[in-house]
């Protein structure tokens, strides 16, 4: 046995490519077995202080990492496809990307962003697409809620996701369908108790205070990502500051007379000129949402990602990286945004032109940025209360979930000025 040991050792050395200097995580449609977990590998590498480059528009937005045994091992454990590259192969790719004739760019990712998810205590990961995919991709995050936000806890984080929350104090406008449901009654009771504990007489007042703290987080340089009802309800809450828009079943007193005329659209992040829905029975906050105005068959419900210059507009390019430009649509309380209600300063990154709706938008506020994504779950077309959770092992290459993870990694990028 002792005599064979040198030969076994030599065989081991020959079986591992000693020439490899880089690991490429390809993100094209045919090569990558698990796009979602590839983001997790990238985040894990950043957290381990490895230098990572995001190759915009190269094979679906691939990631270039240094070769290291622990990275290879992590890829194998998580089922992520990877390729080994020599120095010359990597340089050849980088030269191709840098060519002025190619709509590609190399973006250096500097550090793993600290991630917070605004979500009520006790919520399961499958209650929200972002917590679901972060858990699946093994990207760590910290749940925060009203107490942490009001105590300036957001200062500890780079990136914040807003769970499907109602910041207007109308309990998600579930009153019409679920006012007698035990879960609705219990959640209303819990929200009122929390507001009282925090020193507020109304849930709407407490949620407005939370929305203002989140606004200040973004203005100060934070990154905010919101989906579904957390998009328009957040904007409406800010615009309705000082105006009672809640009916008696929500806050115990009448709403303010002629409150529509008192809405301050300039306080909203993304939307303008919208008309609020006064009827408490109707499952809508305003006419921002297109859910009830859509005439799209499920099998034809797609939206198109915009194409940007990777060299001149790296920010929207990062946020739109995917292995397809055509993404399957999905429903939610806020499914999509009426294009006529979007401020001119906001960038529409995904749209259905036939239906005059935006699905995926981005903007700046102060020193920070925000992204709104319409719909509830990219792989559950019409998610309903009580539906079974989405199993992401069945959707490891989901284009819709990739858009979420683009936003998660985006704050890690070395900052470049947006030129759009």
Q: Extract low-pLDDT stretches.
A: 1-16
The helix/strand class is alpha+beta
Write the H/E string, N to C: HEHEEHEHEEHEHEHHHEHHEHEEEEEH
The count of DSSP E runs of length 2 or more, i.e. the number of strands, is: 15
Look at the structure and give the mean pLDDT.
Answer: 92
Share in helix? 25-40%
Distance between the termini: 67 Å
Total number of helices: 13
Shape: globular
How would you sum up the major sheet?
A: 10 strands, mixed
Q: Determine Rg (CA atoms, Å).
A: 23 Å
Strand content: 15-25%
Q: How would you sum up this structure in a few lines?
A:
The protein has 420 residues and is of the alpha+beta class. The protein has helices at 5-15, 35-47, 69-78, 87-98, 129-137, 146-150, 175-178, 182-197, 203-219, 229-239, 248-251, 314-319, 399-409, and strands at residues 22-25, 52-56, 62-66, 83-85, 105-109, 115-118, 142-144, 159-162, 223-227, 302-305, 326-328, 337-338, 347-352, 357-365, 368-373. Helix 2 (35-47) packs antiparallel against helix 3 (69-78) and helix 2 (35-47) packs parallel to helix 13.
Show the helix and strand layout.
Layout: H1 5-15, E1 22-25, H2 35-47, E2 52-56, E3 62-66, H3 69-78, E4 83-85, H4 87-98, E5 105-109, E6 115-118, H5 129-137, E7 142-144, H6 146-150, E8 159-162, H7 175-178, H8 182-197, H9 203-219, E9 223-227, H10 229-239, H11 248-251, E10 302-305, H12 314-319, E11 326-328, E12 337-338, E13 347-352, E14 357-365, E15 368-373, H13 399-409
Parallel strand pairs: 6-7, 6-8, 8-9, 9-15
Antiparallel strand pairs: 1-3, 1-4, 2-3, 2-5, 10-11, 10-13, 12-14, 13-14, 14-15
């Amino acid at each position: 046995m002792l005599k064979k040991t040198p030969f076994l050792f030599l065989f081991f050395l020959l079986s591992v490519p000693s020439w490899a200097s880089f690991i490429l995580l390809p993100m094209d449609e045919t090569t990558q077995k698990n796009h979602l977990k590839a983001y997790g590998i990238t985040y894990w590498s950043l957290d381990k202080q490895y230098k990572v480059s995001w190759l915009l528009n190269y094979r679906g937005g691939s990631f270039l990492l240094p070769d290291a045994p622990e990275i290879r091992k992590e890829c194998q454990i998580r089922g992520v496809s990877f390729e080994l590259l020599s120095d010359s192969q990597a340089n050849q790719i980088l030269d191709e990307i840098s060519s002025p004739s190619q709509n590609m760019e190399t973006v250096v990712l500097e550090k793993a962003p600290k991630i917070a998810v605004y979500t009520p205590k006790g919520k399961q990961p499958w209650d929200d697409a972002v917590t679901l995919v972060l858990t699946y991709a093994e990207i760590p995050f910290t749940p925060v809620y009203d107490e942490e936000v009001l105590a300036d806890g957001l200062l500890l984080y780079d990136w914040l996701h807003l769970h499907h929350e109602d910041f207007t104090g109308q309990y998600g406008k579930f009153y019409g369908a679920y006012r007698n449901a035990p879960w609705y009654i219990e959640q209303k009771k819990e929200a009122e108790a929390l507001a009282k504990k925090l020193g507020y007489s109304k849930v709407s007042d407490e949620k407005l205070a939370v929305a203002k703290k989140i606004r200040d987080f973004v203005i100060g340089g934070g990154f905010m990502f919101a989906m579904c009802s957390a998009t328009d309800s957040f904007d409406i809450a800010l615009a309705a500051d000082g105006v009672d828009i809640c009916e008696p079943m929500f806050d115990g007193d009448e709403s303010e007379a002629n409150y529509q005329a008192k809405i301050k659209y300039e306080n909203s992040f993304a939307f303008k000129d919208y008309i609020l829905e006064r009827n408490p029975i109707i499952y809508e906050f305003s006419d921002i949402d297109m859910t009830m105005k859509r005439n799209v068959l499920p099998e034809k419900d797609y939206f198109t990602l915009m194409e940007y210059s990777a060299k001149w507009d790296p920010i929207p390019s990062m946020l739109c990286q995917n292995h397809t430009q055509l993404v399957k649509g999905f429903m939610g309380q806020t499914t999509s945004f009426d294009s006529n209600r979007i401020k001119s300063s906001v960038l529409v990154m995904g749209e259905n032109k036939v239906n005059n709706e935006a699905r995926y938008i981005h903007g700046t506020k102060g020193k920070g940025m925000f992204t709104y994504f319409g719909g509830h779950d990219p792989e559950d077309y019409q998610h309903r209360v009580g539906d079974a959770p989405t199993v992401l092992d069945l959707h490891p290459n989901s284009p819709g979930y990739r858009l979420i993870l683009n936003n998660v990694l985006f704050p890690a990028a070395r900052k470049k000025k947006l030129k759009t």
